[in-house]
Amino acid sequence: MVRASPSYADGTMDSSISADEEVSWKRVLWKTQPYPDNYVPPEVFLASLQRNAHFQPYTYWPLVVLACTITQHIAVIFVFLATFVNLNEHLLDPRTLVWICVASFWLTGKTGPHSWKHTNNYSDSNNNHLKALKSSIMMFLTLIALSPVLRTLTAATSSDSIWALSAVLFILNILLADYTATNARGEAHTRLTSVLSMNAAISASVVLASRLATDVSVFALILFAVLSFVLYPILKPRLQALSTSLWILITASLCSVCVYLLTPLSTTVTALCAFVLFSITFIAPILIVWAQQYKNNIRGPWDVAVPKVR
Amino acid sequence: MEKLSIAMISDFFHPAVGGVENHIYSLSANLMKRGHKVIVITHGHPKGRVGIRWLLPSLKVYYIPFIPIASSATLPNFFTSLPYLRTILLREHIHLIHAHASLSSIGHEGILHSHLMGIRTVFTDHSLFGFDDAASILTNKLLVGNLRNVDAVICVSHTGRENTVLRAQLFDQDEKDPTKLTMRNNVYVIPNALIAERFQPCPPPPSDILTIVVISRLAYRKGIDLLVATAPRICARFPHVNFVVGGDGPKLIDLLQMREKHRLQDRIELLGAVKSNDVRSVLARGSIFMNTSLTESFGIAALEAACAGLYVVSTRVGGVPEILPEDMISFAEPDEDDVVRAVSEAVEFVSAGNHDPFVGHGRIKNFYHWDHVTTRTEKVYEAVMKSPQMDLMERITRTMGLGQFAGPIWTIILIVDCIFFMFLEWWIPRDELDYVQSSWDDTRFRNVVIGQTLGDGPVSPPTALTTIPPAARPLSLAPTAGLHGKPGAQSVHCLAMGARLGAAQ
């Protein structure tokens, strides 16, 4: 039995409380109840409120492994920038870069179809190989044909604008990129933002390439951009799903390559890059783990239900 | 209680249509019936609906010339309506304002400004909101600040009250256990009501076909996905069951696709938007009402259907479980299989002839009535009028308690509002205002109208004419008699007029 507490039973509100004390309060609207409208038994009020339901706290090391995907993304961008500077300063022969790219294409083509699609028989996989070969030859030829155009694309624009533009585009690329890990089956669903991100990166590399001196170096840089901003993000979630140790190994090697390439160019940039990579991998997860104490997720009957439709 | 002058303030009012609009109108009409003076303040509408208009039972409506930005709501800016509101509230001698709907910025402004004129405030919240998306966070923050110093809050269901108390932080924390919340004692629950006479049940049509009625806005929140998933399964399971779907919205295309895919064109009828006057006739076509809503504060549609004698199947969400006793409504979880289960049980129950539409109607007539709602609202008004008015210092202290950042911001708004008000007091002094001297007198209106009836016969309803003895009819009524005798005469005259106009052109 519930009794109206004096603080709620404002004498003017309802005089019949004392007469009808036997009736207990019910959470219904259709019944005329002998309680004032502002009354609610304290134990019933918000009884169905759930705080942090289905909440699984994050732990540090799994977060570090997940953060590696962001680290890799930024490392790839710095590697690309270092390559561009090397090409621009004639420290790197563009032909070497082309051969590196061709080798990487061949490698991904070799491992690609097996990890991308589960083909049943040999001829099918052979077919896929042929298709991949054809399309990559097409792409090579198009890029070669385009590189003189790309080289003079922004000849009338000052270099300052190009640096600023490419910086903005790369930042856009970092912000919009899809960092989600795939599920067990390795299915990735493309979102609009990840496409935008890829486009931003390619545009950035095109404007950077237009600063280079020779057609071969433009071709090499664009090839490298396609490799690192189009093919690698497709490959990345599958590598992540493959094995954690391989994943960490790749992250570590990408970071080392990045630092190795940057060191001869500028100490400041190297320090900055190393700091960014370190803080994203190791300090950002600490912040998330620390911020979890403030999590206050409330659920109740007023929430929009999620329909279960098969 | 003593008679009050009440101003209902909301962005949502006639000519827009909807639940809040109906609620304000019915509540105002019933309060007037009990002798209070009620006006409505809302924003203007395009094509010149600004200024003062009168609605039928002598309800005065002020349309302030503001433009709605989205979904009939005005831009939330805290000061712009003060000049209008001050003049209106003062000239109408208002004692109390009653703001409606938490997304109505003009209602919030009313709450913010009223204390300057010593007017008391009541707020009614009609809907449920979440906590976790950006729009909710923003509107909830606004609500917290606005309802900090309100005198009373009314919600339409117990679930709605819990939601509003959490959103607007209308609670005090227990000193011993900070996670335990105690509600403030000025938060009331007064349900919506319906006019039961307008939802008279009629006996089901004598045929083997059983019709399931769905009337709803076709939007995600109304669970149309569930309807799309379950309707073909129900049709496949019961060959004698048909659907009638009334309503319009973004999910209409999904329904059309479903109907085409399963070739159910002859069994699922889509009516499009249904006017509120036609709801009853649509309901009368069926024997089961299906409500698949995912969130619902009160569920008036389900209640109207039950009142019209339909067997109601609804999802167990929000305030719907509170509106009817367990034996009058059957529930399903928002899950495809469970909805099919509940509807199948309902079809079997109704097919077996176990459901009597008239029993349900008789019970609901006693559950919900506008008279009850009005007396309960009156009690809230009475409690508010008896409670002491907060002075400015107390308001500032309470507002500062809103938080480290929100507190000072809201206090600045409060103080700037006071300064703006003082400026207006100087600019438009009170003794220059055009005060309302006399209010609507219903008996006088009736006298005048009946007097007019005697003068100009043609505008009067025939019933009024028949009450007058033939000998007493003045001479001017002679053409009217002809009109009644020969209905064609007037139209022939009109045609002749049309022909003459056509010739003139």
UniProtKB/TrEMBL annotation, chain A:
The keyword Plastid does not apply. Pfam families: GPI2. It is found in: Membrane. Keywords: Glycosyltransferase, GPI-anchor biosynthesis, Membrane, Transferase, Transmembrane, Transmembrane helix. InterPro entries: Plno_GlcNAc_GPI2 (IPR009450). Its main location: membrane. GO terms for biological process: GPI anchor biosynthetic process. It is a multi-pass membrane protein. GO terms for cellular component: glycosylphosphatidylinositol-N-acetylglucosaminyltransferase (GPI-GnT) complex. The chain crosses the membrane at residues 60-85, 137-156, 162-180, 216-234, 246-263, 269-291. The keyword DNA damage does not apply. Pathway: Glycolipid biosynthesis; glycosylphosphatidylinositol-anchor biosynthesis. Coiled coil: none annotated. This is Phosphatidylinositol N-acetylglucosaminyltransferase. It comes from Coprinellus micaceus. The lineage of its organism: Eukaryota, Fungi, Dikarya, Basidiomycota, Agaricomycotina.
From TrEMBL, chain B:
Residues 47-133 form the PIGA GPI anchor biosynthesis domain. One of its GO terms (biological process) is GPI anchor biosynthetic process. One of its GO terms (molecular function) is phosphatidylinositol N-acetylglucosaminyltransferase activity. The keyword Transmembrane applies. Gene3D superfamilies: Glycogen Phosphorylase B. Pfam families: Glyco_trans_1_4 (PF13692), PIGA (PF08288). The keyword Chloroplast does not apply. It comes from the Eukaryota. PANTHER family: N-ACETYLGLUCOSAMINYL-PHOSPHATIDYLINOSITOL BIOSYNTHETIC PROTEIN, PHOSPHATIDYLINOSITOL N-ACETYLGLUCOSAMINYLTRANSFERASE SUBUNIT A. This is Transferase. It comes from Coprinellus micaceus.
